[in-house]
Amino acid sequence: MSRYTSATDADRRAMLEEIGAGSIDELFADIPQSVRLDRPIDLPPGKPEQEVYAYLRDLAARNVSAEDEVSFVGAGMYDHYVPSLVDALLARSEFLTPYTPYQPEVSQGTLQVMFEYQTAISELTGLPVSNATLYEGPSAVASAGWMARLQNGRGRFLVSRALHPHSREALATTAAGYGTAVEELPLAAGVTDAGALREAVGDDVSAVFLQQPNFLGAVEDLELLAPIARNAGPPAPLLVVQVDPMTLGVLRPPGDFEVDVAVGEGQSLGNRLDYGGPSFGFFATQEAYMRRMPGRIAGETVDADGKRGFVLTLQTREQHIRREKATHNITTAQTLNALAGVVYLAWLGRRGIVELGELLLHRTAYARRTLAGLEGVELLHEQPVVREFAVRLAGLGGGGFSRVIERCAEQGVNPGYPLAADYEEHADGLLVAITEQRSRADIDRLAEVLGAAVAAEREAVHA
Amino acid sequence: MTQTIFEKSVDGRRAFVAPALDVPEEPDALPARFRRAEPPRLPEIAEPEIVRHYTQLSTKNFHVDAGFYPLGSCTMKHNPKLHERVAALPGYARLHPLQTPSRAQGALQLMWELQRALAEIAGLPHVSLQPSAGSQGELAGVLLTRAFHEAQGSRRHKVLTPDTAHGTNPATVTMAGYEVVKVGTADDGGVDLEDLRSKVDDDVASLMLTNPNTLGVFDRNIEEIATIMHDVGATLYYDGANLNAVMGRARPGDMGFDIVHYNLHKTFTQPHGGGGPGAGPIAVSDRIEPFLPRPQVVRVTSPGGRAGESGRSQASFELDFDRPQSIGRLRGFQGNFGVFVRSYAYILSLGADGLAEASDTAVLNANYLMARLRDLCGEHLPVAFDRTCMHEFVLTGGPMKRALGIKTLDLAKRLLDHDFHPPTVYFPLLVDEALLIEPTETETRETLDAFAEGVKAILDEAAEDPSIARNAPYGTPVRRLDEAGAAKRPVVRQAM
Question: CA nearest A237: which of A175, A181, A128, A153?
């Protein structure tokens, strides 16, 4: 199979002759015999395009996607509508198939997209500086931790227990390398316990990590928490907030609270679910950290004729220049996903992001009130929420919770994300997410199906 | 003049139409003190102008669908169009990462099969697909090494990287909390064994190696290097950026490597997207396996299958979180799954023979282009390590600079006027005025000839008038840009 190569036997002969080699084998003479593979790789033979398509189509058909059921699962990635212009623009070879823009004269398209993306993220977060993406949300949180380490070298991170479990874990995984301890801040009534933060914060704290809205859907009181988090030093610990960009049309942005770093998962902004990636992680910060931040940054400049143009800038932070003294090891990031993000934000526009935020707010409030009215369903907390909320399914016997989920699934409804795996204290907790693709009728259907499933399981307990 | 999308914004224009509010309005849904006062100043613009804006921007990009892109160590091969079609299937594209595994069996099977294929290609038994790109794979690899040593009660402080290494290697070492120790290069382009021996002791955790290395040279001493590292209990790490040279010919696992990362956006043809997305899976040996990131995709066979079915055993795929020695997650969810779909499509399309043929042709093309350039331009652009190369090779522009008065940068910029993307320039660092050239297997002989002749034409032109190349390019959307000024007074967002 060689449909992606062009060398014919005649080509090979002529090329080998030019090289002065007798065979292709000769070209591999530097590989010692003892480490050569003396058999073919143990993989099936290649397949024609139509057979590969059919095989992968059949595997895809074995998944139950948001196309096949009414899904209320969120917990970090959300089933928002991706407008068709995003698909059309991302499919353009000019955006899809170049490498990182190392030659700016022939990369102005990508570089300007990066610059516009940075501007949009700055506007959303209310922070002056953004890079041109990290991989995704949780590793962006971990990268903020590394920046804090470079900034102050202190030995403790404080993380809210309502920071996304994957963010907490990615931070812990990487901090284990450079030896910073990660300590969890407990929750009170669904939000980060301000008293516990006050007690924990100190001159040896490198950074404090919060999430807005937090993993349980609750809006954190950043006005209260931010000054407490910074009440050490000087210099104060860095305050890092993971934010859901989709809520920033209605919620006060991190910049209002002078946070040091705002990071987050960009999937909601025009990117597909894709079973978890690729999406993008955004990273915005204050001017003071610009030369220490990770990732590529596009900057505006002029060319030899004085014409406006864009380049990769502040590259002396980066691994290919600074090597072991670089601010991060990242090189390939998520530029195409950033394009989806900025096109999506342009499509939503200044008014649209507010309108969409309002719609989510009202539908979520409706869903929350409706579910809380069901027998056996209680609110897990009563804090304000924007697009996601948590309930408890009370009075179920052992295994009852998963049977409820299963009963709903049989009715074509995925009612939400069970909290048990991440929060043992919420073994009966369910996190329910709303998007603009979940109508009132869908919410009513969820209430009907979930209500019936809970009732059936409660009955089984009493029987 | 070039305008940004923000400068094209006009108050009152819009592309988005919100779904109607179909639930009762809840005026108190969000208390006023949490509410944003002013909306973010996103553009206000209708769909046709958004499409036109980004379409016009796109035309300012050079890309591999349009032309030759011999960027060394980046493996800019053709991106098959099938891959975009299969990755967009709703069963993948709209699959939520937290879907119950029993309802995501197709995705998990795909990941498991890809793990198996990658394991076979690298000759190491265990694969984690999780890392998002090569750099995150490297970080995973060094953290695995740390966990491996700590489990033995040993704490080491140094990691060795050759002076030919990609910059990501030393940057990764620092992030993982180790000190970088540089190892020199011998005259034949391989690791300087004497220097290596002098730097190896039981405080060394690992050696990170690219083989073939960034000079395009396969290190003939690889087995001895592995022995040196293993004798002090260190691991040997394989940077897979150059795996495209050896598929089906040799496997890192058989060479003695303990940990490998793959760049799916290089070897396995994920389109690079102007700087991502990619994916950087890792493969490891048995002794490293307990420490792999979690979750792992595993295949479970339950005897007898579901109740009532025939006695046949039933296989299913699960996410295994129960890995007590795991280093933990590096990122959210299961990795860049959309990239896995594309790379698996590639492996299925090529199969065992096709992958081997890809590497053979990549090496053939590189040696042919090297020979053509040696013939046409060898006086001014000699090969830095003149021996049979693997999938890429390095020229030095030193003689060109001295004889013709143009630098490697000038040659690169003039190539843009010939509609070629330049090679990687000024890397590897130990070669004066370096050009690192990787043609890949998907280019024709005619394209390679045209490139060699293009380089020759630029050298001839420079012999007449070096100022032409020094001021190039001319035919590009912009000319040389003031990068120093951009870094000195950074403007990194649109002023509003």
Answer: A153
Which residues in chain A are contacts of B88 at CB distance < 8 A? 87
pLDDT, one tens digit per residue, over A359-368 is: 999 999 999 9
Q: Is the pLDDT of residue A179 over 80?
A: yes
The CATH number linked to A356 is: 3.90.1150.10
Under the banding of pLDDT at 50, 70 and 90, the label for residue B106 is very high
A193/A311 same-domain check: yes
Alpha-carbon span A156 to A166, nearest angstrom: 19
CA dist A367 and A416 (Å) reads 12
User: Which residue segment(s) compose the domain that A25 sits in?
Assistant: 9-50
Q: Which of B285, B333, B360, B318 is nearest to B132 (CA)?
A: B333
pLDDT for A47-65, tens place per residue?
A: 999 999 999 999 999 999 9
pLDDT digits (tens, 9 = 90+) for B214-230: 999 999 999 999 999 99
B387 and B333 share a domain? no
Say which of B23, B413, B486 has its CB closest to residue A300.
Answer: B486
Residue A319 sits at the chain B interface (C-beta within 8 Å): yes
C-beta of residue B492 within 8 angstroms of C-beta of residue A313: yes
Q: ipTM value of the model? A: 0.98
* B13–A349 CB contact, under 8 Å: yes
* CB contact B119 to A (< 8 Å): no
pLDDT digits (tens, 9 = 90+) for B10-55: 999 999 999 999 999 988 899 999 999 999 999 999 999 999 999 9
Q: Which residue segment(s) compose the domain that B411 sits in?
A: 353-483
Tabulate helix, strand, coil % of chain A (nearest 5): 45, 15, 40
Same domain, B296 and B376: no
Q: Which two tokens stand for residue B172?
A: 């990764």
Question: Tens of pLDDT along B354-372?
Answer: 999 999 999 999 999 999 9
Mean pLDDT for the stretch of residues B92-120: 98
Contacts of residue A92, Cβ cutoff 8 Å, sequence gap at least 6: B55, B58
Is B199 domain-assigned? yes
Q: Which of B347, B363, B386 is the last residue of a domain?
A: B347
CB B107 within 8 A of CB A275: yes
* Distance (Å, whole) CA B47 – CA A85: 8
Do B214 and B86 lie in one domain? The reply is yes
d(CA A269, CA A343): 9
Asked if residue B15 belongs to a domain, the reply is no
pTM of the model: 0.97
| Closest chain A residue by Cα to residue B180 | A324
In tens, the pLDDT along B459-474 reads 999 999 999 999 999 9
pLDDT of residue B311: 52
Q: Chain A: residue nearest B490 by CA?
A: A299
Which residues in chain A are contacts of B136 at CB distance < 8 A? 135, 139, 330
Q: What is the mean pLDDT of residues B239-259?
A: 97
Please answer whether residues A273 and B92 qualify as being in contact, where contact means their C-beta atoms are separated by less than 8 angstroms: no
Q: Which amino acid is at B103?
A: R
CATH of the domain at B367: 3.90.1150.10
**Chain B stretch 199-218, residues whose beta carbon is closer than 8 A to a beta carbon of chain A:** 217-218
B80 is written with which tokens? 């098959």
Return all residues near B64 (Cβ < 8 A) that are at least 6 apart. Answer: A97, A98, A99, B76, B77, B78, B79, B272
Position of tokens 């299961």? B334
**Total structural domains within chain B:** 2
Q: A333 and A206, same structural domain? A: yes
Domain identity same for B116 and B255: yes
- CA nearest to B143, candidates B127, B159, B132, B129: B159
Task: Select from B65, B147, B434, B76 the least CA-distant residue to A173.
Answer: B147
Interstrand relation of A388-393 and A377-379 (parallel, antiparallel or unpaired): antiparallel
Residues A16 and A109 in one domain: no
